[in-house]
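pipeline/complex-builder :: batch 7 item 3
reading input block
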Amino acid sequence: MTDGVSPELIGFAAELADASGAVIRRHFRQPLTIEDKPDSSPVTNADKETETVLRALIGRRHPGHGVIGEEYAAHQPDADYLWVIDPIDGTKSFIVGKPLFGTLIALLHKGRPILGVIDHPALGERWIGARGHPTTFNGSAVKVRPCASLKQAVLYASTPHAFEGKDLTRYERIRRTAKLTGYGADCYAYGLVASGFIDLVVETDMAPHDYLALIPVIEGAGGKVTDWAGRPLDLKSDGTVLAAGDERVWAAARAEMTA
Amino acid sequence: MTDGVSPELIGFAAELADASGAVIRRHFRQPLTIEDKPDSSPVTNADKETETVLRALIGRRHPGHGVIGEEYAAHQPDADYLWVIDPIDGTKSFIVGKPLFGTLIALLHKGRPILGVIDHPALGERWIGARGHPTTFNGSAVKVRPCASLKQAVLYASTPHAFEGKDLTRYERIRRTAKLTGYGADCYAYGLVASGFIDLVVETDMAPHDYLALIPVIEGAGGKVTDWAGRPLDLKSDGTVLAAGDERVWAAARAEMTA
């Protein structure tokens, strides 16, 4: 591939999100079959059906591409082009009828995320990031906002209960410094970083399908996203995530999380 | 007044929510003037403008009614009919572009809440509860769901950081027992109790404009809402709130929060 992602691939990613959204909206706030996975996180028939639909569309249009999804086994994971999908990120929100859950669709080329979609089917809201293009929100370009310091930052995390021991101490230092802290926004928080409303997201225990789609979205809006140690995120990262709109806030948070 | 709230009053409350929604949507995700109040919570020009519009509408239609709002001084607080309004509940969500904030409109008659609206203008979603009528969500009747025990309950709170000392210990006991815990849904969580998706909400430091509108919504859907000690909520309550869809969960949570 050349420097920028082709409009064809971006269009196809949007088609995928249209298809997943149609499935998910049919199931939202309707009776669900809910199972507990081995890690005790819930999975529903809607998660599975959505991933099945996305895999079928990818297989039909791009049979040479690989797919890694949250719910089923990897397909051609060594392909140059690899889709990494989370049909419903925020299943806990989905099952309680809270509309901030989203579908995450990433495309990697030789291991590097080049395209990402954060789609919120219950809200009709979608961020798309693609290398060589500005990140868009429902079709309009968005940008992160400047924020000079942690003290002025709006911080988000999924839940404080994800942090333990030394990590909790580090996180608490950031939280007590930040101007305002919010929880429970799932992947929506990363979209709001790209759109310039949130300055910092700190997370842990994330899987590749949770973070890879966020990278092109945030980078294409001018932000920065790495693990806590400042390393780029890829399929083998340690599950920690630091996303910021302004590099100064990213650097300050990185210093705290590794202190 | 007779046993049920008149359709005229319910219709007027909906008109109020239409009007507040129109103001708030104009300001959502637009540049805001943000001030810190004495309690260090934020207030925006949108909060103030919304309350001004609601007060004007009430004064014109029902000049004999009183109004207590979050942002301005009480007007005729001794009137038999008293409106208690929070123009934007969840201002912290509003200013970061997260659409779960809502407008809360309560009507008290001789101190008792008889009508409540939870309106989410960025989502186009509205719960209305009124004595003598089933609670509605966007016009359709809703009901709480049965839940036999804390162990099976979905719990919500605004943030765990609101709890301190002994209260935090009590809250943590409930959280560790509950099946699933979520944060950051503002007044939306109470709507989801009425609609049968969330089983329990535990809060503290609430003001009358934060909780009075929730009461008719939850009671009209078959749920129960009191302070932690199990007392009915009124203008002089202590700021603790326990809302549950099923009385068994309410009783268990009450026992834990007063243990």
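note: The two ends of chain A are 39 Å apart (CA to CA).
queue -> next item
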